[in-house]
Amino acid sequence: MTSQKCVALIAHDQKKDDIAAFAKANEAVLARWKIVATGTTGGRVQEACPSLDIIRMKSGPLGGDQQIGALITTGEVHMLIFFTDPLTAMPHDVDVKALMRLATVYDIPMALNRATAEQLIDFHHP
Ligand SMILES: O=C(CO)COP(=O)(O)O
């Protein structure tokens, strides 16, 4: 990956409409970032924002959260926007927690809901 600042976009299933709407509303700002996403989220955001160039990892339950966690450890992801669903049990809950843990360990800005994401994306200009 290049030295361009990179944001990771992830949303759980109940939040995918929200992240697509968030991306659409912030398409011009997101265009300045390199964007990585988990598989299904990336597909939804790409559909909503054809102008963006999104690098899609595996789907979350198949290891996508872990791939993005690894990119945080190597300094290749600089901000995490993760619309989580706190009302649904998930088979890969440990991966979700591990990703949040690495974002905390490496002290990168992390938004877990839309209200915070709107503020982060305004505040952190690459
Ligand atoms: O499950 C996810 C994050 O934990 C998201 O993965 P998808 O974007 O592939 O649905």
From TrEMBL:
Establish whether keyword Lyase is in the entry. yes
Its recorded reaction(s) are: dihydroxyacetone phosphate = methylglyoxal + phosphate
Recorded GO terms, molecular function?
A: methylglyoxal synthase activity
One GO cellular component term, please give it. cytosol
Organism superkingdom: Bacteria
Active-site residues (renumbered): D65 (proton donor/acceptor)
Q: Which residue range or ranges hold the MGS-like domain?
A: 1-126
Keyword Methyltransferase among record annotations: no
Keywords attached to this entry: Lyase
**Which SUPFAM superfamilies does the UniProt record give?**
Methylglyoxal synthase-like (SSF52335)
Cite the binding residues for substrate.
Answer: H12, K16, T38, G39, T40, T41, S59, G60, H92
Top enzyme class: lyase
E.C. number:
4.2.3.3
According to the UniProt entry, the coiled-coil residues are none
Q: Which BP terms from GO are recorded? A: methylglyoxal biosynthetic process
Signal sequence coordinates: none
Note the HAMAP family from the entry. Answer: Methylglyoxal_synth (MF_00549)
Family statement drawn from the similarity comment of this UniProt entry: Belongs to the methylglyoxal synthase family.
Name the job this protein performs. Catalyzes the formation of methylglyoxal from dihydroxyacetone phosphate.
Name of protein: Methylglyoxal synthase
Q: Which gene encodes it?
A: mgsA
